[in-house]
Structures are given as structure tokens and as C-alpha cells.
Amino acid sequence: MVDPNLKVLISAEKIQARVRELGEQISADYPSGKLHMICILKGACFFLTDLARAMKRDVSVDFMGISTYGKGKTSSGEVRVTKDLDISLEGADVLIVEDIVDSGVTLNYLMHVLEQRRPHSIRIAALLDKPERRLRPIHANYVGFQIPDQFVVGYGLDYAERYRNLDDICVLEDPPAA
Ligand code: IMP
Ligand code: MG
């Protein structure tokens, strides 16, 4: 896709290599038992499918829909569950799989919601982290890449539902009208 507004920040090759590393590291950190991966829709679904396949262990997956951002680049600050989990978390080792930690509002809210469901443990795997933007304290246990405060798209991340299917993660410089 040739688009003058897009500048590659992290290439597809680098993403794939890092996701494989994360899969090996996470598998080694959970040597036994069930590991339940929760994909936060929609952005994390590309990351989840690659990460799950990079795991050297048995995993189960489930999906949760959360909405924070409006249609463009600015957060509404409001968190809403748009699709809940199918499977109970009681006693499970849970790995939340998220595309990006930005303000931390989404994950902070989600951690509170999921902790009430009595999992054995909860950890977070985030492909990207923008630490400069944090408003709520959130520690992601596994991070693919730390990035500066720039709006990015691709590999699941969108601007007004566009660009999710790019292989690379790109900075969106001058966004088209949503
Ligand atoms: P937070 O609640 O501010 O941490 O926002 C997390 C959500 O905002 C992510 O799951 C993304 O959906 C969205 N988001 C944050 N930064 C970006 C970005 O640079 N590009 C695309 N979506 C983003
Ligand atoms: Mg998201």
C-alpha cells in the first residue's frame, strides 16, 4: 500500500522476530498448567494469532471487546465492554493480549474487571508501549516495543478502522478525514 502519510516505524520482519521471542519467553515463564490468552478486540487480534502460534505450549484463547477511543485519534476517556468473554477465568493463569498501552485507562479498567473473576494470575502482553502518555499506572509484563508519543497504525492498529491490515507498523503523519 503506497500512502504518503505513512512512514514505517517497525518493519514486518522486526515485528515477526520480536513476537517469536516473546512467545518463547512467555512459554518458558509458564512451564506447566493451562494458559488462557485473552485478546482485546479489535487491535490485538493480529498480535494474538502470531503470538499464540509462537508459543511452545498449549494455550486457550478468548476474546473481549473494549472500546475507549472514538472514531479518530483522541480518547473519549470512557471505557465500555462491547463483547464479554465466553469462558470462566476462575483459577486460570490469564494473559491479556493488547496491541498498545497508551494512557493505561483501558488496561487499568480491565484489570479491575478481570481480577473480580478470581483467576489464579493475570499478566499483560502488549505489542507496543507509549510510556510517555501514561495517565493510569499499568505494568505490562511483556512488551514488544517501546515507542515515542506518535500515532501509529498497522498490524492491527487502526485510524478510524483503516490500516489494520498493514504488515508494518507505521506512523500516520497527516491523517485523512475519518
Ligand atoms: P489507553 O486506554 O489510552 O491505554 O488506550 C489503549 C487503546 O487506544 C489501544 O488499545 C488502541 O486501541 C488505542 N490506541 C492508543 N494509541 C494508539 C495509536 O497510536 N494508534 C492506534 N490506536 C491507538
Ligand atoms: Mg485496542
Protein architecture, described:
With 178 residues, the protein is of the alpha/beta class. It has helices at 12-29, 45-54, 105-115; strands at 6-10, 35-41, 60-69, 75-83, 93-101, 121-129, 142-146, 152-153, 169-172. The protein has a six-stranded mixed beta sheet with strand order 4-3-2-5-6-7, with helices on both faces. It is globular. The two termini are 18 Å apart. The chain binds inosinic acid and magnesium ion. Magnesium ion binds at residues 40, 43, 99.
The succession of helices and strands, N to C, reads EHEHEEEHEEEE
Q: Report the total helices.
A: 3
Unreliable segments of 5+ consecutive residues: none
The biggest beta sheet is recorded as:
6 strands, mixed
- Regarding quaternary structure, what we see is single chain
State the secondary-structure class.
alpha/beta
Key traits:
binds inosinic acid; about 180 residues; binds magnesium ion; six-stranded mixed β-sheet; alpha/beta
Question: Helices, strands, pairings?
Answer:
Elements: E1 6-10, H1 12-29, E2 35-41, H2 45-54, E3 60-69, E4 75-83, E5 93-101, H3 105-115, E6 121-129, E7 142-146, E8 152-153, E9 169-172
Parallel strand pairs: 2-3, 2-5, 5-6, 6-7
Antiparallel strand pairs: 1-9, 3-4, 8-9
Bound molecules: inosinic acid and magnesium ion.
